[in-house]
What does this fold into?
Amino acid sequence: MEDFVRNRITQLRISKGVSEYKMSYDLGHSRSYINNITSGKALPSLAEFFAICEYFNITPVEFFDAEISNPYTANKAFDIIKGLNESDIELISLFAKRLKGLK
It folds into this structure.
C-alpha cells in the first residue's frame, strides 16, 4: 500500500505537470516534502493526504482507483458531460465505446 501511495502521487503530479518542489511549496511545506514521500522516507499524515487529494482536485476514492490514470482529467470531462442533453450524452457514449473497441 505504501508503494501505491508513493507511485500514485508521482503519477498524479506528473499528469498535472508540476515538479516535486512546486507541489511541496504549493502544499506549504519545505522543498523536499514530496520527495521524501515518493522516495520512501516518509508518508503523509491523514490530514496531508486529504490536502494532497484536494491539490489534485480528486476524492480519496479516486486517489485509490488505479483504473483511472488521470482522475483530474476524467472529472473535467464528466463535468462537461453533465451539462449536455440526453441525446448528446448518448453520442459521446457511443463514441467512447467505439474508441475502446466495444459494441
Notes: The two ends are 36 Å apart (CA to CA). The longest helix spans residues 2-16. Helices lie at 2-16, 20-26, 33-38, 46-55, 60-64, 71-82, 86-100.
